[in-house]
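User: For my dataset I need records formatted as: sequence, then structure tokens, nothing else. Please produce one.
Assistant:
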Amino acid sequence: GADLEGRLSFPAYAGDGSVFVVSDVSGASGIYRRGEEVALTLASEGRESFLAPTNDGGVVFTRQVDGSSDVFVLGHDGEIAPVAEGPAEQSRAVKTHDGFVLFENDTVLHVGADGARKVLAPDIRLPETAFPALSPDGMWVAWSPAVASGFIGLTRIDDGHTVQLVVAQDAPTDLAFGQGGSQVMLAFVAGGVGVDGFPSLFIADVT
């Protein structure tokens, strides 16, 4: 198919080999899916961002309209359903076994398949661009407290049980899990003080 035009952003790779991406070629926002051909799956007067694929060929995304943001899921059939909306700022959702995990203002929120909402972690340090950090088994979410405390929180999604991973850095952020064989690692950035300061990358073994 033809190449996409306009400013492209927030690509998300789907399990069937296609790629979702946001394009503003029309002057408004649109989510395109590129596989065998380029196809517009959603056109909106809002601004779509933070795309993340679901396990059934759809994509979950954040939509900003008039300064507020909400989360929706676009199914493989083209139907749109709300995940989290309202006066709070909801954004950057990822699919879990039984719903979604996302940021709501400065909290980590779980929204179940039945719409039930549960705060997993209050008063977090909201990352600059990262999604909520889900463990490879989908059972834990990692987060950093808003107040520099020298630890990273690890919370189970099912029962809310939380453990603290002590780190030498006071204010870790932009967390991401990775796995190699049986070893589970958690990467994060920290540091960077002052105009010329740059953060550094750190990796902790959380197996």
